[in-house]
Amino acid sequence: MAEWLYEEGIGEARAALIEHGRLVEALVERDGDAARAGAVMQGRLIATLIPRKRGIVRLLSGEEALLEPIPPKLAEGATVLVEILREAIAEEGRPKRAKARVAAPGIKPHPGPSLLQRIRATGVPVIPCPAHEEDRLEAHGWSELMEEAMRGEVGTEAAALRLYLTPAMLLIDVDGSLPPAQLGPKGAKLAAQTIRRMGLTGSVGIDLPTMNNRDERMIAAAQIDKYLPLPFERTAVNGFGFLQIIRRRERANLIELLRESPVATAALALLRRAERHGQGGPATMTAAPAVIDHLRQRAHWIDTLSRRRGGAVTLRADAALAISAGHVA
Predict the structure, then answer these.
(1) For residues 95 and 89, is the Cβ–Cβ distance under 8 A?
(2) 301 and 192 both lie in a single domain
(3) Which end of the chain is less packed: N or C, by CB atoms within 10 Å?
(4) What φ, ψ does residue 178 adopt, rounded to 5°?
(5) Is the pTM of the predicted complex or chain greater than 0.90?
(6) How many angstroms from the chain centroid is the CA of residue 214?
């Protein structure tokens, strides 16, 4: 039995896939004008990076995207209809532009599917979760998962993961107090579950403990195949306990999304708590000055919260609070 829990929040939409009572996949889509994967949009070639292979197009929205390949007859300055294959992704020091290709003949411009459209397309039942009802996302560990993604730490002393973002790949280090023959399979299972829960895509490296023989390594690799749904490709576990997984990359993973702006992440989490706080009516949101400034610059969020609560919302800055320590009264 599986179902999607869907929440149309303020500033972002949230979805959680629940299977047999467990949260196995979490998706977040923040409001914004960036091109979504699957969109077909008009653009103009503004620069050629590698002749016939790679260039930059500027979309009508002003956003830039990498175009690969460049059609032979397309000159700089010419307009072109492109399909967005991968959304723009924030990366420390070098943000990645969206990636595009020339749209197939006959296709008309259209936006990429929203989060709600994507989960509906899976065929799994979608259950709306309005704020006036019980918090079903939280009941399945939503906040705990968000904290794990922000910290990059998952698990217990027996078997734990540390997750590191790098420009080349996402690395998962498996550690714990169990003997290698037990830690290998347990760590591989936890890594596979975490990859799915956080939407980790692209190239993912998993550093398991060094195991004694090939049979132990095969047992560990089998846990990846069991708990990570296709499609993906992977290597075998080598003698040093390392394997690599490749998954199709269309958008930022949960870690990248939440860490892109910790202030925005804290503000949106506070809005979620405020929407569900008490029985509605007036409310006061208290948070670190940076979080309050972020909210004040987005007055439409506060207006929406006031309408949903049926009362005025007051913002109060407290310099003694950490960014994530906001509260509602």
Answers:
(1) yes
(2) no
(3) N
(4) -70, 155
(5) yes
(6) 35
Judged by DSSP in three states, 186 sits in helix
CA–CA distances in Å: residue 80 to residues 75, 76, 83, 100, 211 = 10, 10, 10, 11, 53
Packing angle of the helix pair 214-227, 180-197 (nearest 10 deg): 20
Is it the case that residue 127 has pLDDT exceeding 90? yes
* DSSP code for 125: -
The residues facing 170 across adjacent strands are 165, 204
Looking at the structure, tell me whether residues 14 and 119 fall in a common domain.
Answer: yes
- Alpha carbons 56 and 20: distance in angstroms, whole number: 45
Does residue 160 sit in the same domain as residue 241? Answer: yes
Query: Locate tokens 């979805």: which residue?
Result: 15
Task: Give yes or no: residues 147 and 82 share one domain.
Answer: no
Provide the residue type at 137 as one letter: L
**Rounded Cα gap, residues 203 and 93, in angstroms:** 19
For residue 295, give the amino acid letter. L
- Single-letter amino acid, residue 174: V
Tokens of 238: 């080598």
Residue where one domain finishes, among candidates 51, 80, 102? 102
Q: Report, in this order, helix, strand and coil percent for the chain, each rounded to 5.
A: 30, 30, 40
pLDDT band for position 212 (50/70/90)?
confident
The pLDDT tens digits for 277-316 are 999 999 999 999 999 999 999 999 999 999 999 999 999 9
Give how many domains the chain has, as a whole number: 4
| Contact (CB, 8 A) for 161 and 198 | no
187-217 b/e with 16+ CB inside 10 Å = b? bbbbbbbbbbbbbbbbebbbbbbebeeeebb
